[in-house]
Design goal:
It comes from Oceanobacillus picturae. The chain has 6 helices and no strands. By secondary structure, it is mainly α. It has one domain (2-182). It is globular and about 45 Å long. 45% of the residues are buried.
Length: 183
């Protein structure tokens, strides 16, 4: 029983780590003074993409793991460490990024770009044989809630937490990857 609790807690931390990108983007979007209806829609679409992208990654990861064997656990852990490291480095990148309007195709592109790292994480998790339904529900819910929180907070705060949330998210991914590798 404690094994299931440990796995649940690990997946919960991972879901929130991946959702930190959505939180960061949400902070920036919230500063554009969006209406509450638009905030709700953006959060739902981001959540859906955080379900779809890791699902494709998990399926592909499971397919790969059947052919490769035990080395996939190591590769999955290394992949998570790499993604977490990239998040940490991008938090210190001070270049200005082009703002995409969160409407129509722009919303889809924005959601895709926020959730692309969850594809890679899904790939790594698919290789390690994690419970797919639990992961997808937690990834979607966490990213949706964190994007809503970020946008609502962004309406109040003007840019204080953006980089720090990416640093926290990257650190959690690195820790989870190390746990998988040495686990």
């Amino acid at each position: 029983m404690s094994g299931y609790v440990g796995e649940f807690i690990s997946i919960l931390f991972l879901a929130f780590a991946l959702g930190m990108d959505a939180f960061s983007v949400g902070l920036g979007l919230g500063m554009q003074q969006l209406r509450l209806k638009r905030i709700a829609l953006i959060g739902i679409v981001v959540g859906i993409f955080h379900i779809l992208m890791p699902f494709v990654g998990i399926i592909l990861g499971q397919f790969i793991s059947e052919g490769i064997g035990q080395i996939t656990i190591l590769l999955g852990g290394l992949l998570l460490v790499g993604i977490g490291s990239q998040m940490l480095f991008s938090a210190f990148n001070h270049e200005l990024k082009k703002v995409i309007e969160p409407v129509g195709t722009g919303l889809l592109i924005l959601s895709f770009s926020i959730s692309i790292d969850s594809f890679s994480v899904g790939l790594g998790l698919g290789m390690s044989g994690v419970k797919t339904a639990l992961v997808l529900l937690m990834f979607g819910a966490a990213s949706m809630l964190l994007s809503w929180t970020g946008m609502l907070l962004g309406k109040k705060v003007r840019g204080l937490l953006g980089a720090y949330s990416e640093i926290l998210g990257g650190s959690i991914l690195i820790a989870f990857g190390i746990k998988i590798i040495f686990g």
